[in-house]
Automatic annotation (TrEMBL):
NCBIfam families: PRK09485.1 (NF007020). Binds 1 zinc ion per subunit. PROSITE patterns: HCY. This is Homocysteine S-methyltransferase.
Length: 296
């Protein structure tokens, strides 16, 4: 599925939606706009494609049946909104300007269980749920997303090994490829586990086509990516956040941005790679990254 060339991911979809004037402070985050302003999601995807991105990552990261139910949305409508996240990304892809022969992809985002709690738990992991319970949580929404026929799934911002194993188990029956990316801090997962053990979980899984890190400090990317390549032999995926810190209590980002397109682009020389940005990374940053890896 993946070639030897670098694939350019998008940046922070929610960040772009906020920049367009939307308040995403409720528990559904960007998924709220699947119902309230779907055209704005298309516009945000389009901005990243215009910047040079090859991939649109859907607005389903924080979407869950439980989260929609809390807003009074029934099961059927919730499933429709999940499928809509893929449809909107496809709409943006299909209407984008030609990309010089480069393929464009739609990756259906599957965030961790902690993201649906909207309390910062995805940066801690270890929710007190068994692996079986986590698989049972993830599988229904992954099935619905797969029905919409994205190119692949983005199993992203995974904070611990147990959840990674649960996600891979849920993936088995879907017939779709996926990348899996951990959120890390220093040399460990957010739950404090060895990255070597974390990457080993997916090393022999053919349905995982790339592995790496996302929504982490940019400084944590290089050692994690090198380890992921060494352990799995798979293409790596890396899309750090801006380097600012998320204050879950205050629900705001603090500190100065440290996202460096030049430093991130260096990972394109070690083998196949999917590179981009996460929270607080804008289309202008992706355009700069594209220039550094000679995609534009």
């Amino acid at each position: 599925m993946l070639t030897s060339e670098t694939i350019l991911l998008d940046g922070g979809l929610a960040t772009e939606l906020e920049a367009r004037g939307h308040d995403l402070s409720d528990a559904l985050w960007s998924a709220r706009l699947l119902a309230d302003a779907p055209e704005e999601i298309v516009a945000a995807h389009a901005a990243f494609f215009a910047a040079g991105a090859d991939v649109a990552t859907t607005a389903s990261y924080q979407a869950s049946f439980a989260g929609f139910a809390a807003r009074g949305i029934d099961l059927r409508t919730s499933a429709g909104l999940l499928r809509r996240s893929v449809t909107l990304a496809k709409e943006a892809r299909d209407s984008a300007e030609p990309s010089g022969g480069r393929r464009r992809w739609v990756a259906a985002s599957v965030g961790p269980y902690g993201a649906t709690l909207a309390d910062g738990s995805e940066y801690r992991g270890r929710y007190g749920l068994s692996r079986r319970e986590l698989t049972a949580f993830h599988l229904p929404r992954m099935e619905v997303l797969a029905e919409a026929e994205p190119d692949l799934l983005a199993l992203e911002t995974v904070p611990d090994i147990d959840e990674a194993a649960a996600l891979v188990e849920a993936l088995e029956s879907l017939g779709l490829p996926a990348w899996l990316s951990y959120t890390v801090e220093g040399g460990t997962t957010r739950a404090g586990q060895s990255l070597a053990e974390a990457f080993a979980v997916v090393a022999e899984r053919d349905e995982i086509v790339a592995v790496g890190v996302n929504c982490c400090d940019p400084a944590d990317v290089a050692p994690a990516v090198a380890l992921a390549r060494d352990i799995t032999g798979k293409p790596v995926v890396a899309y750090p956040n801006s380097g600012e810190n998320w204050d879950a209590d205050g629900r705001e980002w603090r500190g100065a941005p440290r996202f460096s397109p030049a430093e991130l682009a260096a990972h394109a020389t070690g083998g196949p790679a999917l590179l981009g940005g996460c929270c607080r990374v804008r289309p202008a940053d992706i355009a700069t990254l594209a220039r550094h890896i000679h995609l534009t």
